[in-house]
Request: fold
Amino acid sequence: MSELWSVARTAKFLDVSKKRVYQLIQAGRLESLKLSPRTTRVTRESVERLVEEAKRRQRDELGLDFRPPSRTRRSL
Reply:
């Protein structure tokens, strides 16, 4: 079973507001469990996945994963 984080802990880890965490949950980008009307927990795995996706997207946007075609020797 995945570790569960409070919304406040998730917000602190991501350095965003609690409102933003709820928006990410609503958008389906973070997995959560509603334990009671006032208690929501976020899975640590979904937080890690969100961070990895953001890093991958940023690398793609900056072109850091670009690999030029490899040069091969041609026989004459």
Summary: The longest helix spans residues 44-62. The mean pLDDT is 90.
